[in-house]
UniProtKB/TrEMBL annotation:
Residues 58-168 form a coiled coil. The keyword Protein biosynthesis does not apply. Residues 1-21 form the signal peptide. PANTHER family: ANGIOPOIETIN-LIKE PROTEIN 8. It comes from Etheostoma spectabile. This is Uncharacterized protein. It comes from the Eukaryota. GO terms for biological process: regulation of lipid metabolic process; triglyceride homeostasis.
Amino acid sequence: MKMTWGLCLLCLAGCLRAVHAGPVKKTGKMADKAAPQEDVNVLMFGVIQFSESLNYVYETTEAKIARISQTLRSHEETLQKLERETEQAAQVEKQIKEVTQLLQAQMSKQQAQTKTTKDWLASMEQEEVELKTKVKKLEMYLNTNISIKELQDRAKEQSNVLKGLQHLSKFQKENVESQNEQLSKLQMMSRLVRGCGLSDRFLLHARTGHGSLLVPPSGWELNGGRSVKA
């Protein structure tokens, strides 16, 4: 307000200086007195209007400045609020990032554990398969051993039977040889008996095995391959 009145006074002083510096018409004393007064009134009216206009402009400008200042303060508060919200959002984003990293680390750890567990299960399944294979082979081996034992027992029995058959065959062979030998002796004695005319008693004596087939009965002796009575 003081600035407005100062401007008005400056304008008024300038106008008065211009009026005093201007040419003055010489039309008489009354005209000379009336003209400056009228000019002064006009100037004063103009100064008053100017001051009022300037005051209005000042007031409106001040109001605009106040509104602008208020708007700026509001904008500043909004900016501060946005800045705080941005900081909070940054903190939240940081926390979210940390939580995300933690979750990723946990997921990686769980994936590693899952892979380890899967590998362990696969290994256990493989070991189970190998164990089943070994058990099956062992059962086959045991069954094979039992079969071999049975075969060995059967082979032993057959060997014993074969040995018995061999002994029997040998015994029969010996009997056959003995019978052949006896038969040969009987045939030879039969020829001797037929050649010498021995009695049936001597033949019976030879067949029954009493005495030697090559030794004639008592009262007989061999002479040149022939049995003759002594």
